[in-house]
Design brief:
18 strands; Endonuclease, Chain A; seven-stranded mixed β-sheet; about 525 residues; alpha/beta; 3 domains; nine-stranded mixed β-sheet
């Protein structure tokens, strides 16, 4: 029975689709050559040797043209090498793969939808601070905030916003359920993963009660992210309960680069006044009801006040594109925001594939913080699969005396990603960066803290998928209450983590070569 379930699962269908597609493309190329060769052999046998030579030369000429195209293309340098190798090794077949999958650009229709929604959203930016204000209020960190502000309508810096940081899923859920119960107008939720179980069932029970009270509830989940977690038509199950539900970019059994652009965000907005984001998806391992990878360490940030506006705009922007409509944003904006006495500035921001987002904002945030730090930078990430720019920023910060520390998992959820993560240890350790592994289990938090002054919390992993392909979000904070709470969480987590040495980073020669090969193709996956 279990075998039958696996055979008829969506994972099996996806894998089968990939295999069938590869076989068909390869068969089409070989078939075309065989047909041409057969026609020549029949109607012009004397020319047969020359035709074979011409086909051989043509294949390599086409491959050479596309190698040059890949080498000069405006794309992340690390993605050029694997495509060039693919074209050289597989020739015309490699060219076909390159044409189909080398771009991370969303489809043209989706880009047009984003442009239309963006125009509507920009009317509600209402930026409170000029660049001069940011530099005056935040000193050298104003540069980081200003860089976030450019090019994305939702990245609005605000003050007077209350922040609360949760260092575990268990702590988060308690406050989250209480806030859902207080909803009066609407609850908007956007998550990469939801899965039936204790966590989601407790949330769903509250949502059903709020619907009965007349509260509007919208849920959007990523279709591939939830594959194997919920059934294919779960959105209809939620709709039958009165929830307006959308699957983000539903999977269709056609191979296309569009499936790379997943919605990795985790956002909840309640009445436009309270907002949540962070690393937590809505499944039982995130609150340690189940323990597939030891103790699951995660986090979330709660905002209350004007800073929630950005999370609302992020949700509506993504939802409207999926729904192919434009909401009347005014309906969901509070008439006034409560101004809290808490000091500091918060700035939620979104990120996604080019050209929806003109730059890789998430990576920019990390690099700009590293370049501005003077005393220390602490980072927590489940995956450490980084490009040359970020690696150099980490090492250069360490070499100028900044205490750079990175916490990664000790128990992996994905063995290949874990191997790639560990393969980066040696270069970083030799560059002065300290690497720690969270020994109780798996750390899924995505955190950066610098100089007791700034922090960013969100959904962004230190890997190519987050930087290049996924829709992500984060909250940049300057001297808020949550910054102090994050510092305390880091201190506690370091005590539970093991410092990695050069000896730890050394592996067998075979292992190192396997990792080096895998690192070449990591940017494609």
């Amino acid at each position: 029975m279990r075998l039958l379930k696996r055979i008829f699962s969506r994972f099996f269908i996806v894998a089968l689709t990939i295999i069938v597609f590869v076989i068909l493309v390869w068969a089409a190329i070989i078939g075309a050559v065989v047909v041409v060769h057969g026609l020549v052999a029949r109607y012009a046998p004397a020319a047969e040797p020359y035709v074979a030579l011409a086909i051989f030369i043509l294949w390599y000429l086409v491959a050479a043209i596309f190698v040059i195209h890949a080498a000069n293309r405006d794309m992340v340098p690390e993605t050029k090498i694997p495509w060039i190798i693919t074209i050289v090794v597989f020739n015309v077949f490699g060219v076909v793969l390159y044409l189909l999958f080398s771009s991370s650009r969303p489809a043209k229709k989706k880009r047009e939808l984003y442009r239309g929604v963006d125009a509507a959203m920009r009317r509600h930016e209402k930026r409170k601070f000029t660049a001069e204000d940011l530099h005056e209020s935040m000193g050298r960190w104003g540069m980081v905030s200003e860089a976030i502000s450019t090019g994305t309508p939702e990245a609005i810096a605000c003050n007077g916003t209350k922040t609360e940081y949760f260092s575990s899923g268990e702590e988060f859920l308690q406050h989250y359920l209480a806030d859902l119960e207080k909803a009066e107008k609407y609850i908007f939720m956007e998550y990469f993963i939801i899965e039936r179980g204790q966590m989601w069932d407790s949330i769903l029970a509250v949502l059903e009660r709020k619907i009965a009270e007349g509260v509007e509830v919208r849920v959007m989940y990523d279709d591939i992210g939830c594959m194997g977690k919920i059934h294919l038509n779960y959105h209809r199950t939620l709709e039958s309960k009165g929830i307006t539900c959308k699957k983000f970019s539903p999977f269709v059994p056609l191979l296309t680069n569009v499936h790379n652009n997943r919605d990795h965000r985790k956002i909840t907005v309640i009445d436009g006044k309270v907002g949540y984001t962070g690393g937590l998806n809505l499944a039982d391992e995130y609150i340690n009801v189940t323990h597939p990878f030891g103790h699951w360490k995660d986090n979330a940030i709660r905002l209350e006040g004007e800073g929630v506006r950005s999370l609302l705009l992020m949700f509506l922007r993504q939802y409207d594109v999926q729904n192919k409509s434009i909401d009347e944003v005014e309906r969901y904006l509070p008439e006034t925001y409560e101004v809290f006495e808490e000091k500091g500035i918060v700035q939620p921001y979104g990120d996604g594939p080019h050209p929806i987002y003109p730059r890789h904002f998430s990576e920019d945030v990390y690099i700009n913080i590293l370049n501005s730090a003077r005393r220390y930078v602490y980072i927590a990430t489940p995956y450490l699969i980084i490009d040359y720019s970020l690696k150099q920023a980490l090492i250069l910060a360490a070499r100028r005396g900044v205490d750079v520390r990175i916490i990664t998992p000790h128990i992996p959820d994905k063995k290949i990603a874990f191997a790639l993560t560990r393969s980066n240890y040696m270069a970083l350790i030799e560059g002065g960066v300290k690497i720690y592994e969270y020994t109780p289990g798996f750390i899924h938090a995505k955190l950066m803290l610098a100089d007791d002054a700034v922090a960013t919390v969100g959904t962004v992993n230190l890997d190519y998928r987050s930087f290049l392909f996924h829709y992500e979000d984060g909250v940049f904070m300057y001297k808020t209450k949550a910054v102090g709470e994050i510092a305390e969480d880091f201190r506690d987590t370091f005590e539970k983590s093991a410092l990695q040495t050069r000896e730890d980073a050394k592996r067998s020669v075979v292992w190192r070569w396997i990792c080096e090969l895998a690192k070449i193709f990591a940017p494609l996956f």
